[in-house]
Amino acid sequence: MMMIDLTHTLTTSTEAPMSIWPGHPTLEMTKVAAIPEQNANVTLISLGSHTGTHIDAPNHFIADGLTVDKYDLTKLVGRALVVDVRGKKAREMITWEDMRKWEGEMHEGVIVLICTGWSQYWGKENYEEHPFMDLDAAKKLMETGVRVIGCDTLSPDNVCSPECEVHKVILGAGGMIAENLRGIEEVLTLKDPIVSLLPLKLDDCDGSPIRAIAWSAGDI
Question: Residue 20: beta bridge partners?
Answer without folding.
Answer: none
